[in-house]
Each structure stands twice: as structure tokens, then as C-alpha cells.
Amino acid sequence: MSLTSVSALFIFLVAVAGLGGAMTGELARAGQAGQASATFIGRERCATCHPHQQEAWLGSHHDLAMQKAGEDTVLGDFDDATFTHFGVTSRFFRRNGGFFINTEGPDGKLADYQISHTFGVTPLQQYLVSFPDGRMQALSIAWDARPREAGGGRWFHLYPDEPIPPQDELHWTRPSQNWNWMCAECHSTNLKRNYDSATDRYRTTWSELDVSCEACHGPGSNHLAWAEGMAANQPVEPALAATKGLVVALDERRGVTWSPDASGKPVRDPPPRGHREVEVCAQCHSRRASLADGLRHGSPLLETHDPVLLSPGLYFADGQQQDEVYNYGSFLQSRMYAQGVTCSDCHDPHSGRLRAPGNSLCAQCHAPARYDQPSHSLHPLGSVGAQCVACHMPARTYMVVDPRHDHAMRVPRPDLSQRLGTPDPCTACHQDKDAAWAAEVIAAAFGPERKGYQPFASALHAGRSGEPGAAKRLTALIQDQGAPAIARASALRELEAYLSPASLPLLAVALRDSDPLVRGAALETLLLLPVPRRPSLALPLLDDPVRMVRLKAARALAPVPDESLSTRDRARLKDVMADYVAAQEANAERPEAHLSLGLFHAERGQDAKAEAEYRAAIKLEAGFAPAYVNLADLYRATRREGEAEAVLLQGLGQRPRDASLTHALGLLRVRQGRPDEALRLLARAATLSPDNPRYAYVLAVAQHDRGQPGEARATLAQALERFPYHPELLAAGVSYAQEAGDGTTAARLAERLDQLATSSP
């Protein structure tokens, strides 16, 4: 996993639910028991019996995921090469057989740093610098490993269009570029971060520096014992014989065939019984929160990780990848996943290469006579446009030079792109055309009703934009058992903006859904309900078979008074809450984990603990705005306004352009009776974050109360252009227009409010 796009979403509180738990309870327990007694033996022992797999793996991306810096591993130009980014010139050079960079350090001064490891190999290679406290940090200047004729053979910055000063969270010396937490788990085998929060130091260890056999198959000592026993004709324990000593048996494709049904579509025989292999890959090939320190081989994915949903900024409304999401969340949307396709149906798991070139890969299941034809692709045979991936797996480029194919494998929908503004693979190539043209071409060739397997775009778009009828559309999607579970769960999260008493029966059903993804999302939504309504809905989920779901249940029940619960429920909640705290403490080097604990303790009425956690977050990352805002709010709630003011000013000293800190200080100035300064701060917050309708609403109210009704109406009018159906903005707009005698505007805005009201379920 790349360091450069990982964000605060990777921590449990702000991450959202993911799919998993397909492994049965028996398999999970067997895997955990097997891991408990198994130890890591190294790939050399594996290669003794598996030479062909070893040969395929050598030179693969997994093999070269991380290496010690040396003549045979460093690809970049270290012969006194220079690179300048926003006025900072870095120099790459050699000294005493080592590789060095002279670049801007954490204090803003140029200094020499030795390269300890390479990171990745193609199409780019990053470099790590080791520090005395055990940290390894990834440089933001990377080597373009593509051939020169393809634009490679050069140094480039991963954030080419913005300056990254030392105080920026993306600077190479900051926590967001820390290898130990951000990357190591997925670029090494048997990694233990071993972070010591008391000293803020790492003693990170691993069995193998790269992604080797046991990274996927789990510790191999029991498998080796089984193999040696069989070779020597010695008796083998029944438990060992049943599993061959494997902690993770990746055998789901064994004996599987794909045959066309009456319509020509491929059908799996036997039907899938789980998604164990996909979950093993998803441990790394997903954007997810971590719920433990390290992997637990043999356990379901959701024991240790919590993949993100189709969230704005990460995915477009139709589920296409937007930010770097690493395939898993996209694949969950696909018909292929639903039918039982696994990663290794297309990718050789040892070499990482595709099992067949070009359209031959898809022809393993999809008849070429039907699909690999101009009548289907609408392009000449052999052309770029005739490639299956061109239309069904469009690529998006990350890290400047690295194109990644979208694994949702969707039917192109230029008609949706025309209405919703989502990317369109047709016009991505035919750049002289628009989506309307593409929609006409597709409709003429395949008919207007060819909608594909992902018909949820309109509902998610309506939820994100606040259109009339959004709640009804989201409700219908949540109830659609034929829709991908990740889309249904995402709809639950979008429904948060439209919660009403009518939503409770829907939430109650979602909490009993067969898919843990949906149950987890429903529990996240419960956080917006009044506390007295939560116990009857969330308490049963404390016994959920999936750990991720149990942790979310504990979070939802945090503010419930202990005395209101039965003895049994109180004891069970105490146990799961302890596990919730442990999940956060497993990420103690991250400020987001301490923020989660601070919020948790605050809701438990443990103010001193909450304050300590917020302070710990700030100590780890001085520019982490959410910790300042929540600490100030804790002080406000406990009538310590002077300390709240000091905290907000401290935060703004670190992040002077942060809208949340500016807005919070503006509200504090209102409470202090300093309206002019408050108005200035609230206006600045609304300007800094124009995508936050709440900031615009509060500003308009403040302007109106300060005797500036014209400015208030102007603020609302501008915000309503961006959020035409935001209920608070509309209500204020109606009120202020009526007050000004502007009946036309009041009637127009009131009509929108009526549309919202009549379209609610």
C-alpha cells in the first residue's frame, strides 16, 4: 500500500464499515488455533517443496516490495542529480558506498539523509530513511522507473502541484509518511510494529523484508511438520492431517469450473461458499482501518480490518474509484465477486501477472464469439478500444505515474455521467465528444434498458446532493437484497442526513441483515439517534459473530448509563468496550486513535481520560485540528472557556487556515459577547470551507442577528447555489426573504422545502 494517499480514514472512528466475515465460524476458529501453535519458517523452507511457486515469485512486485538499498536495488539517479520542488532543491548523491539525499528536514533546513531501503519497483520507486527512534520515513520525491521514451527515468514529486513545507501533514518527515504504520504491514511478512507510546519509539521487526509465502499462507511450521511426517511415513495428528497444517488454505478454485448458462453468461460450479481468498488479498489490497497490531492469519478480514464504504471523495456516486482505494471496495461491487470469481481467477498469485494477455483473460469465461467482436466493443478488432478493460475497467492514475484499473467491472453508463457528472470511459478516449453523444451511441447499440449490475448511482447521488426524494431512493437501495452489500451499506451512511422517526424500522431491519457490512453501517448511523433509543437496537449486536460489528455496537452504546442495563448486558458491554479500547490502542502512534478514545471517554463521562487522549493526539501531531476542536468543546462543556480559547488559538497557530478551528473560535467569540470578531471568524470559516453548508448557515444567522439582513440573504443565496435543497439554508432563506418583503424568493424557496417534505418516506 502506498504511503502517499493514506489518510485519517484509516482509523476506526472515522473509517466506515467493510465487507467480510464470509469465512465460517469453524474455519475462523481453526485458523486461529492453527496460528497459535504455528511459527514462521521463511520462504527458503517453503521453496524446498514448492520450487515452481518460488521461481514465479522471484522478481515479482511482492518479492520487490521492499529491499535494502544497494547497487542492485536502487534504480534512481544518485550521481549528484538534483530536483527542485517549490524552491527546495534536493540533491541525490553517494558517499562511502551508501545512497544519500540532501533535502529539507523537519526543521526546514537542508540536511543529508541516508537511504536505508527501496520501496516498490515499478512504475515508480520510493526510498526510505531510517531514524534513530526506529521510524522509517518515505521520501515524497520518487524515481519514475518507466523507460525514458515513456516519460520515465527522472525524479518527480508525489505532490507536484503544491508546496509541502515541514509543518504540512504530507511532509516526508510527518506521521502520514511513516513506513512503520502506514506501509510496513503490507510490504513485509510477519511484521510487528512494536510501538512504545511511553517513549514514542519503534522496535519494528519482521520475519522477511518483502511479501513472502507466509504473508498470505500464514506461518508454515505446522505445514512443514505435516509434509515431513508424510514424507517419512510417520503418523500425523488428525487435526494436522485435516488441514495439512495450513493456517490459511487458499484452495477455493480447486475443482471449480465455469460454464455458460442458457443466456451465454458463465456460471460457477460449485457455487461459492465463502470469500476466503479475496479476504486474504484484501488485507492489503483495500483501503481500510486497522483494528489490531498486525495480521491474524486464518481469521476473517473483519477481525482485524474495517474497509471503507463508497464514501464521497473516495468513490464517485456510481462506485467508480476516485481516490486511491486499492481494488477491494471496487471488486465488492462487481457481478464477478457476487458469482464467486476470486483474485487468482485472473492473477497468478505468485508472479502477480495476469493469467492470459489482453482479451484472452476475459475469454476464460466470456465467449469470444459473442463478446470479442466489433458488434460488442463497437471498435475494430485489435484496437485499444476493443480491449475489454478499456470500457469495463477504466484506469485512473495515482502517484502521478501509476494507472490502476477499476475492479468493479461495470457496464459503461454515459447516460449517468451526463446526469450525475461521473467519469465516462467513452469520452475519456473520445475527448472531442461529450457524454450525451456516448449515451446515444450505447443506447443505439444495446438498447436504453441496458443498466448493468450497479444500479445504485442515482440513489447515492441523491443522498449526497440532498435532492428531493433522496430518503426514499436510499431506503429502496438499502432494502434491495440484489444490490451489492457495499452499496446498501453506503446508502445507510448517506441516510444519516435524512433520519426521522420513520427511519427506525429500517435501521432495526438493517441491524439484522445477513451481511456484516450492512450491520456495521447501521450501527454507525445509530450514533445520530438519541441515547435512550440505542440500547434496544444495539445491545443484541454485542454478541455478533463479527468483531468489527461488535466494536461498532460498543461505540454506539458508549453514552448509555450502566445503571440502565441488566447485569448481563452491563458485563457484556464492559467486555466489548475493553476490546474497542484495545483496537484504538493498537494504533497508539496515530492521533486519530487518541481522538477516537477521547470521544469515547467523553461520552462515558470520563472527562479526565478524554482530555488526556486529546492531548496525546496533539502531542503526536501538532497540526491535528480535530483534537483541538474536541478538546475545546470538552472545556466548553465543563465551563472552562478560558482553556477552550487557549486550545483553539494554539491549534490555529499550527493550522491558521483550518476552517473547523476558525469556526469553533468564532462560536466561542459569540459566547464571549464579541460579535464583530465572531462575525469575521465565521465568515473566514465559510470561505475556507465552501463545501460545508453548516458554516454558511451559521454565518448567515450571525449576520442577521448582527443587523446585516442583506448580507445574510446574500450568504444564503450563494450557499443555496451549491446546496439547493439543504433544509436549514432553505428555512432561513424563506424566513429572511419574508422579513425583507421578498415574496417571490420566499415562495420559490418554500416550494423547495415542500418538495423535501412531500418526498420524505
* Residues in helices, as a percent range: 40-55%
Shape: globular
Give the rounded overall mean pLDDT: 92
Query: Which consecutive residue ranges, at least 5 long each, have pLDDT under 50?
Result: 1-35
Biggest sheet record: 9 strands, antiparallel
How many helices does DSSP assign? 37
Beta strand count: 17
Helix-strand category: alpha+beta
Give the radius of gyration.
28 Å
Strand content: 5-15%
Q: Please give the alpha-carbon distance between the first and last residues.
A: 42 Å
What's the SSE blueprint?
Blueprint: H1 25-37, H2 43-49, H3 51-57, E1 66-68, E2 81-85, E3 88-95, E4 98-104, E5 110-119, E6 124-130, E7 136-138, E8 141-144, E9 154-157, H4 179-182, H5 184-187, E10 195-196, E11 201-202, H6 213-217, H7 221-231, H8 238-243, E12 257-260, E13 266-269, H9 276-282, E14 288-290, E15 305-307, H10 328-331, H11 335-339, H12 343-346, H13 359-362, H14 368-371, H15 374-377, H16 388-392, E16 395-398, E17 402-405, H17 414-420, H18 425-429, H19 435-446, H20 457-465, H21 470-479, H22 485-494, H23 504-510, H24 516-526, H25 534-538, H26 547-556, H27 567-585, H28 591-603, H29 607-620, H30 625-637, H31 641-654, H32 659-671, H33 675-688, H34 693-705, H35 709-722, H36 727-739, H37 743-759
Antiparallel strand pairs: 1-5, 2-3, 3-4, 4-5, 5-6, 6-7, 6-8, 8-9, 10-11, 12-13, 14-15, 16-17
Characterize the structure shown:
The structure is a single chain. With 761 residues, the protein is an alpha+beta fold. Among the domains are: 35-61 and 214-243, no CATH class; 66-188, no CATH class; 499-573, Leucine-rich Repeat Variant (Alpha Horseshoe), CATH 1.25.10; 590-689, Tetratricopeptide repeat domain (Serine Threonine Protein Phosphatase 5, Tetratricopeptide repeat, Alpha Horseshoe); 696-761, Tetratricopeptide repeat domain (Serine Threonine Protein Phosphatase 5, Tetratricopeptide repeat). 44% of the residues lie in helices and 10% in strands. The strands form five sheets. Strands 1, 2, 3, 4, 5, 6, 7, 8 and 9 form a nine-stranded antiparallel β-sheet that branches. It has a two-stranded antiparallel ribbon with strand order 10-11. The chain has a two-stranded antiparallel ribbon with strand order 12-13. Helix 32 (659-671) packs antiparallel against helix 33 (675-688). The relative contact order is 0.08. Residues 1-35 have low confidence and may be disordered.
